[in-house]
Structure prediction request, 228 residues.
Amino acid sequence: GESVGLHLPTLSVQEGDNSIINCAYSNSASDYFIWYKQESGKGPQFIIDIRSNMDKRQGQRVTVLLNKTVKHLSLQIAATQPGDSAVYFCAENIGGNMLTFGGGTRLMVKP
Amino acid sequence: DAGVIQSPRHEVTEMGQEVTLRCKPISGHNSLFWYRQTMMRGLELLIYFNNNVPIDDSGMPEDRFSAKMPNASFSTLKIQPSEPRDSAVYFCASSLALGGGSTDTQYFGPGTRLTVL
Prediction:
């Protein structure tokens, strides 16, 4: 889920299908990761987090997977709904209490 | 319960004017963050306060930007003088930092959309 300038990667899925959004992080020392959802005109909204001592964490319809070997994070959304359409950001702890955000991935859900 | 509150939600001003953005963090939170979001640069951390003290301001673009946190329930981000390239959405976020080296979830406000003409 990295952006380049004005272009956001876009994932288009059919309503009811599962979605997988990927993120590559940069700091092998990062120990905390968060996924945020941002709808148009709103601030980022917390979805789910995971600490580096885990490789999987599940929430309601969402699952985050962490692969520290390849520094990869993914967000899986089950039974994607139109209300899931948004931009999704991964964020990693860069030290202290600060986060670095990825560029975002736009999820579009087709009815 | 109220989340992070920001005001104004929209601000349109002319180049050279002073702009002040306001934030009220979630009650009980002890860390506050100011971010700027643009299409070109994404979401950037500007400054971070812990217990009302600025901890890291390395993201503040230049001397025209300043931030204060006079108490636990209020912070301001000021731009003086403003320039067209400052146009962006500015977010405030807060968290409850429990210390011990852990990182805690940041909760974002709705943002202030700033347009400098």
In short: Chain B is about 0% helix and 55% strand. The mean pLDDT of chain B is 93.
